[in-house]
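Example S7 (structure tokens).
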């Protein structure tokens, strides 16, 4: 390095900066320092790469689980609406499988005038198959068909109109 008139060091155009080391063609050991730095970066990359790939795989598996949960929730809601309208269980199962996916399973339970549909499915993908993730969504509704206990529905089942009162 040469000294400027003010006393500050100035670099020649052929100087190269490697890390915190200033290497020029005439300095001793400049090539050995750069080679060691490159080797250290390669070793650090080789150690960090599996951790980054594992993190990426977990993020993708989490996203797949989130998408599966959204699908089965939508299938359960649509199945509950179909049950409330009075659709037969086979049609409800087709509706659920259309929205939740072909691997989803649905079960229907009735408790008085309330019907509940439970949809379950496994998380897809390589991590989903190795980790036993089973997701569940449940939806309940009251039946809207005639004769289910509502005043208008019960009156309509007996042949009464909406304005008449039964005694």
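Recovered sequence:
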């Amino acid at each position: 390095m040469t000294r400027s008139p003010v006393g500050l060091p100035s670099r020649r155009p052929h100087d190269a900066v490697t890390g915190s080391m200033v290497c020029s063609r005439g300095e001793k050991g400049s090539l050995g320092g750069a080679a060691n730095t490159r080797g250290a970066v390669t070793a650090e990359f080789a150690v960090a790469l599996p951790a980054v790939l594992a993190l990426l795989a977990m993020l993708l598996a989490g996203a797949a689980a989130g998408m599966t949960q959204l699908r089965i929730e939508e299938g359960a809601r649509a199945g509950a609406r179909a049950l409330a309208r009075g659709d037969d269980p086979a049609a409800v199962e087709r509706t659920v499988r259309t929205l939740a996916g072909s691997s989803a399973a649905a079960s229907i339970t009735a408790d008085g005038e309330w019907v509940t549909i439970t949809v379950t499915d496994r998380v897809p993908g390589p991590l989903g198959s190795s980790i036993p993730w089973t997701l569940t969504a449940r939806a309940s509704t009251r039946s809207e068909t005639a004769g289910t206990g509502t005043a208008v529905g019960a009156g309509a089942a007996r042949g009464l109109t909406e304005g008449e009162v039964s005694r």
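Notes on this example. DSSP finds four helices and seven strands in the chain.
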